[in-house]
Amino acid sequence: MYLPSQFDPKNVYVAHQVMRTHPFASLISVDDAGLPFVTHLPLHLEASGASPGGSDVLLGHCARGNAHWKYLAARPQAVVTFMGPHAYMSPKVYPDLVRVPTWNYVAVHCTVQAEVLDGHAAKDALLKQLIADHEPAYADQWRGLPEDYTGKMLNGIVAFSLNIISMQCKVKVNQHRPEAHARMLEIYDAGSPDEKALGQWMRQMGLGT
């Protein structure tokens, strides 16, 4: 993605934060006609704690009826995007009128190498990771379901691991416009949930404080 240096936090842990707090991602690869094919899905991050790329892995699954897993098997390299909070920003935040509106946002893009995972054990382990991420209390219910039912559910999905080859993180909150930071925070703090979240990102980046 287009990533001016002022919007690059240059910190893998910031990217991990975005991926964990906004895990509903877009998985993008190429179909048999050579066109982009997109699946929207939650992904679990297993972070190595190393540099971007490292051995960080994303785990996910899709319905067996979704041809995306076949495209991943045939052409394993893909892109994953995570979209964090985003919101419009009016030019009224500036002290002068010769300005234009903008849109602020937080996003992560990853280039990944996919591996399709087979077998009930691998798929069950992946589902338990997702359950732990989103509803830990459901784990006991999953374990207590009849085996014929869980087997049917596992047969209906295809799991995959996505090894992160490279990663970009963009935090665009007008870092390069310090004359507007105080007013931006006023607007964001009084705004929508996304706007409030962008205000928190501004504070995390040390802006307007």
A few lines on this structure:
The chain is an alpha+beta fold and 209 residues long.
Written overview of the protein:
Helix 6 (181-189) packs antiparallel against helix 7 (193-204). A hairpin with a 5-residue loop joins strand 1 (24-30) and strand 2 (36-42). The protein has a seven-stranded antiparallel sheet with strand order 2-1-5-6-7-4-3, sandwiched between helices. 33% of the residues lie in helices and 33% in strands. It is elongated and about 65 Å long. The protein has one domain: Pnp Oxidase, Chain A. The longest helix is centred in the middle third of the chain and has 15 residues, at 120-134. The protein has helices spanning 12-21, 68-74, 120-134, 138-144, 147-155, 181-189, 193-204; strands at 24-30, 36-42, 44-46, 57-63, 77-89, 102-117, 157-172.
Q: What is the fold-level CATH name, i.e. the topology?
A: Pnp Oxidase, Chain A
Number of strands: 7
Structural class: alpha+beta
Radius of gyration: 20 Å
Enumerate the spans where pLDDT stays under 50 for 5 or more consecutive residues: none
Which keywords apply here?
209 residues; Pnp Oxidase, Chain A; alpha+beta
